[in-house]
Amino acid sequence: MLGKLPVVVSCIAIFATSMAAKPQVLLVQQQVQEFTERDPNLDLLPVFSNTLQETGWVTTTEWFETNPLIVAAIADGILRSYSANPAPADVFRVARAIRADFVIFCSARLVGGGVRGDMELFRSSGGRSIFKDENSVQILIEGAIDKPSSILSIANTFTTKLFAGPLKEFAAATPIQTPPATHSTVTTTARLPIDKAPFENGMAALNEGKIVEALNLLRDAVDADPTHGAARLGLIEALRRAGKPFLAADEAMRGAELNPYDISLVVVAADCYLSAGQPERARATVRAVLDANPSSDEAWLVYGDICLSTLNNDEALSAYSKSINIKPTAEAFYKRAQAYALLEDFQASNRDMESAKSLGLDDDPVKVLARYRETIKIVDNVFVSLATRVRNIIVEARVAAGPDIARRARETAGSVNSFSEFVAKLTPPDVHSRSHEQRLLALSLLVQAALVTQDFVNRGGTETGDEANLLQIEAMREFGAGQSIYEKESK
């Protein structure tokens, strides 16, 4: 065994005897081959090794050409030659020779607008894989990828997951060697608490709308303490506001992996997938939560949102009702009011809107804006549906009126009036006040059109029919103007 490694190996043996509970890890970075003009690989190895060493729970050996252990292994014939991308069999042979307990293969490369890291943990004896993970991050400074911060984030996340999972027995109790009573050369120092400034300043920047600054600071806060739940939620919110829902979802899932008992992060991930336009992935994510914990009111809320986005309005109504039965919140009543509006049960919708207001909706400006914009999507769909119905009744009544058309005209007039009351209860954020007023004007005209249409169906008269038609056209024109104003306000 390693003829030219007697001193090195004996030192490892002595160290292993004195620190038996401190395993050694051989780290190997694999280079990803891509046919591109630039090398996508980033140097994860030294950073990952350092984060593992800093825990004090393991020792590490890095696979690089000038490492004395690798040089000696080649000289002794254990390894034929050095390779930046060694065969696993060669790595395990060297690992057993130097008495490493574990081998980690890792990689880091540029992917799209971010950095992706991969890692797999093996036992040296037998070469059995016991843990595998991947982590993608996007940390930008002035629009460019911050490679050092991205690498550090990936290394910290991998380290945290390793000691929360397959290596947790070594993190639980690290033996401390007691030095002799005299001539001690070790000076003990108090452990410094994690600096919370990045979190506090990051949240302040987020509240002030400084998204880029918030992203950088909150990423630092998460890197400093991956188990800091509030910091991770802040980072997720910053990513969502930056228009990166996929990255926000990935961040939420990473947090959930570190704390499997916190289902709220999985629910947040599902909500992010929905925002990213992936309702099926969102559905699968939140269904997994509901299967394990059907009493999660937050999960039922997100599930209702998913159903509403795919026009499964009855299923959405059922999901919101389950959330309210578990925990009646203002947000749940507000969402159910939307579902009732889509189902054109405006009396129930107005009742729920009143309940939401009495319980007190969150008045955070960002949430107010997001809530209003989601509601306006529903308002516009319902408006077009009702306006089309009024127009169709006018056309049919001109051909042949009858009891069925009279009933439909009466019901439509009632629905338009109730819908108008529903929209009037909405409180628009300042940025959308003008377009909201325009929508209310359009609704007022549609209410008049519906009432005149009902009169036309019941009494007839060409002039009445013309007036109803003109009012309906005017309502649609004002509605279109409101949408144009809204689009400008949203830029």
Task: Outline the secondary-structure elements.
Blueprint: H1 6-18, E1 24-29, H2 45-54, E2 59-62, H3 68-75, H4 88-97, E3 102-111, E4 114-123, E5 129-137, E6 140-141, E7 144-145, H5 147-164, H6 168-172, H7 197-207, H8 211-224, H9 229-241, H10 245-258, H11 263-275, H12 279-292, H13 297-309, H14 313-326, H15 330-342, H16 346-359, H17 365-399, H18 403-424, H19 433-459, H20 462-489
Parallel strand pairs: 1-2, 1-3
Antiparallel strand pairs: 3-4, 4-5, 6-7
Attribute tags:
alpha/beta; Serine Threonine Protein Phosphatase 5, Tetratricopeptide repeat; 5-stranded mixed sheet; two-stranded antiparallel sheet; 20 helices; 9% strand
Question: What this model shows, in words?
Answer:
This protein is an alpha/beta fold and 491 residues long. The chain folds into 4 domains: 6-168, 3-Layer(aba) Sandwich (Rossmann fold); 195-243, no CATH class; 258-361, Serine Threonine Protein Phosphatase 5, Tetratricopeptide repeat (Alpha Horseshoe), CATH 1.25.40.10; 367-489, Up-down Bundle (Four Helix Bundle (Hemerythrin (Met), subunit A)). It has 20 helices and 7 strands. It has helices spanning 6-18, 45-54, 68-75, 88-97, 147-164, 168-172, 197-207, 211-224, 229-241, 245-258, 263-275, 279-292, 297-309, 313-326, 330-342, 346-359, 365-399, 403-424, 433-459, 462-489; strands at residues 24-29, 59-62, 102-111, 114-123, 129-137, 140-141, 144-145. The strands form 2 sheets. It has a 5-stranded mixed beta sheet with strand order 2-1-3-4-5, with helices on both faces. The protein has a two-stranded antiparallel sheet with strand order 6-7. The longest helix is centred in the C-terminal third of the chain and has 35 residues, at 365-399.
